[in-house]
Fold this protein.
Amino acid sequence: QVQLVQSGAEVRKPGASVKVSCQASGYTFISYGINWVRQAPGQGLEWVGWTSTYNDNTDYAQKFQGRVTMTTDTSTSTAYMELRSLRSDDTAVYYCARDGGGGVLWFLDVWGQGTTVTVSS
Amino acid sequence: EIVMTQSPVTQSVSPGERATLSCRASQSVSSNLAWYQQRHGQAPRLLIYGASSRATGVPARFSASGSGSEFTLTVSSLQSEDFAVYYCQQYNNWPPTFGQGTKVEIK
């Protein structure tokens, strides 16, 4: 079945970096882009950015530009999101989600289970 | 960016009753609107795309309508598994944005 499986929970100190992975299975990886969406504790959903899975195109929300890098490895059908210069307000569950085939401006039809990132000194 | 406003923030409904959720966009998003359901402790799940099309496997008790800036999600007869938080998302204009969510709780 189509699924996205994310890496496990991470704990980092302020100023550090974190890299979360998202491995796809059950479909042709390069046919759909991958979005990253985060959810702070008790809060709503916030779009972080999008990466193509067949070229180097990426698109990041303005508030994360300069701090985030999204990449993919087609040999393992895995997408990655690295967030640098972490702050306490980056504490959140980070989800990867497949776009429905329409690129950055599209609905998100398959979601990973989420990765909890905790930033604490 | 387009601001999505959902109402009410919380809706208390008895099992078997109807729930009606609203989502308003700060400017027209045409029909480029999706609805997601998030059960407690789980990832969001796509329910509706294109403002009114049910995603694969979504029960027929979920229906949605609207276009432009006003949208509605209706759950015709709430089942126990439907008590959750519902989010709308516009994907017409960059950046894609979500509403703040409506929690549907048991009355």
